[in-house]
Specification:
The complex is a heterodimer. In chain A, 0% of the residues lie in helices and 53% in strands. In chain A, a hairpin with a 5-residue loop joins strand 4 and strand 5. Chain A starts with a strand and ends with a strand. In chain B, the strands form 2 sheets. In chain B, strands 2, 4, 5, 9, 10 and 11 form a 6-stranded mixed sheet that branches. A 5-stranded antiparallel sheet of chain B has the order 1-3-8-7-6, with no helix packed on it. Chain B is globular, with a radius of gyration of 14 Å. Classes of the chains: A mainly beta, B mainly beta. Chains A and B meet through strand 5 and strand 12 of A and strand 4 and strand 5 of B.
């Protein structure tokens, strides 16, 4: 079990460039999440998904897009990178709720992607 | 809606001393509560969780936390600090029903261990 994997580990972007942060999990989890972590601010939820084909905005979605075509993958897209998007990005997954029955609320985190926009 | 307040962004304790990291929560629904630890340049790892069984929860690495509904608190403790405990610790809360199951994190407490 690899758990939650993220690529790349590090990336430097120029202002206005685009990129996709990849996230994959092999635990057959229903729920997946994207967070950003800024110093002293904790983790802020960007987007989340409760299953393939279903996504919703979190607390700080502006400037990002997501898709969830499979249970395993949940990529995060930055279309026009801005310096304010310099951060560490974490993907996570959890069993969540399925069929009206709660499964597992514990979230499993990937190792993170450190993104710098200059 | 849920929220978490962690008192003290930085805590320093001597090696062998008691560790106490404070967390207070606010939730309109019965909560689940979590403590996560983050070592430098790594992702978050679950230390322990409260899911309405025993109010005193034991986790990994000798940590434990007690859910106190009357005080809306979920403080993290360890009787004797070790150098390897130096890390950042996050408290998090979630509701239990659909639509309230997203985790809300506190801003974190950085724990420093003094030799």
């Amino acid at each position: 079990n690899a758990g939650v994997t993220q690529t790349p580990k590090f990336r430097i972007l120029k202002i206005g460039q685009s990129m996709t942060l990849q996230c994959a999990q092999d635990m057959n989890h229903n729920y997946m999440y994207w967070y950003r972590q800024d110093p002293g601010m904790g983790l802020k939820l960007i987007y989340y998904s409760v299953g393939a084909g279903i996504t919703d905005k979190g607390e700080v979605p502006n400037g990002y897009n997501v898709s969830r075509s499979t249970t395993e993958d949940f990529p995060l897209r930055l279309e026009l990178a801005a310096p304010s998007q310099t951060s560490v990005y974490f993907c996570a997954s959890s069993g969540g709720i399925a069929g009206g029955r709660s499964l597992d609320y514990e979230q499993y985190f990937g190792p993170g992607t450190r993104l710098t926009v200059t | 809606a849920q929220s978490v307040t962690q008192l003290g962004s930085h805590v320093s304790v001597s090696e062998g001393a008691l560790v106490l990291l404070r967390c207070n929560y606010s939730s309109s629904v019965p909560p689940y509560l979590f403590w996560y630890v983050q070592y430098p340049n790594q992702g978050l790892q679950l230390l322990l969780k409260y899911t309405s069984a025993a109010t005193l929860v034991k986790g990994i690495n000798g940590f434990e936390a007690e859910f106190k509904k009357s005080e809306t608190s979920f403080h993290l403790t360890k009787p004797s600090a070790h150098m390897s405990d130096a890390a950042e610790y996050f408290c998090a809360v979630t509701g239990r029903d659909f639509g309230n199951e997203k985790l809300t994190f506190g801003t974190g407490t950085r724990l420093t261990i003094i030799p």
